[in-house]
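Hi P.,

Sorry for the delay on this. The queue was packed all week, but I finally got your sequence through. Input first:
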Amino acid sequence: MDMDAIREIRQAEQQAEEIKKQAMEKARDILRKAEEEGNRFLAEVVQQAQQERQQFMRQAEHEAKKEIESLGQKVEQECQKIRQVAQIRMDEAISLVMGKVVNIHGHS
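Then the structure:
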């Protein structure tokens, strides 16, 4: 083999090594970018899930407050009815006691 042929072979081998090295660097770069993009996507998904959870909690709290308010009004209405019935019975009891006191003192 002559020297020119050997030089061409060595040059071709060096070029092949360089191409291989560049391909490996490009592959590492692609992997790094893919990992960064995956991490960014994961962070966005987590943030969105947290926002949805917060919105759900606010909605649930709002609905619970409305329900508590409604129940409070119903309880207040029932208490008012009980007070009215108690007042009527109290008036009846006072009338009954007064009637007995008057009858006792009126017959003495």
